[in-house]
Amino acid sequence: MDKRKQIIDVATNLFSKKGYENTPLSAVCEVAKVSKGLIFHHFKSKNDLLREIFHNTTKLMVDINQCSNVNQSPNERLHAIIESVFKQLETDKMLFQLNLNLMLQPSTRDTLKDLINERSNLILNATKKLFNEIDSNNADVLSYIFIAELDGIALNYLCIFDDYPLAKIKKQILSKYA
Q: What sections of the sequence does the record tag as coiled-coil (predicted)?
C-alpha cells in the first residue's frame, strides 16, 4: 500500500474512533509507522489531511448516487440508490460516523465548510435531476425530503439507537419509493 493512502486510512480510523480533536498527528505517525515529515510531505497540515478524508468520503457518496444504470427507469434508479446507501451504511459504518461527526462539530465544520457545501450541492442536484424525471412539478421539494429521510435514517442508525431496525427501515423506504 502506498504511504499516502496508508496515512489517510490510519487517520480516518483514528479520527473515527477518537475524534479529530483528540487525535494528534503523532498518533497517526505511530500507528501508520511513518514520520511526521512524511505526513507533511503529503499534507500541509492536520486540517489538510482532514479535508482529504472528507473529499474521499464525498467521492464515495457521489459513487453511491451514480450506482444506477442509465437504462433503468427513474424509479429503478431511485431504488438502486436506496439499496446502495443502505449497503454503504452497513459496510462503512465507521466512515459514515466520522463524516457525520465532522459535519456537526463546529471546529471541523468551519474547516470543511466549502467541501460540505460542494458535496451538498452535488447530492442535491443529482437528486433533483432524478426526481425531475419522476415528478417535475415537485422535484425540488421531493429531493429535499428524500435527502432529509436518508440523513435522518443515517443519523439514527449511526449515532442514536443501538438496536436500530435498519433492514425494516430499508424495506419500508423501498416500498414508499416503489
A: none
Length of the chain: 178
What is the span of the domain harbouring residue 38?
1-43
Distance CA 4, CA 24 (A): 17
| Block mean pLDDT (10 aa), the chain, length 178 | 92 91 94 95 96 90 68 91 92 86 90 95 93 97 97 93 95 94
Helices (H), the chain: 3-18, 25-32, 36-42, 46-65, 74-91, 93-104, 106-134, 139-155, 166-176
Identity of the residue numbered 43: F
pTM, full prediction: 0.86
Give the position of cell 421539494.
Answer: 141
Q: What is the CATH number of the domain that holds 21?
A: 1.10.10.60
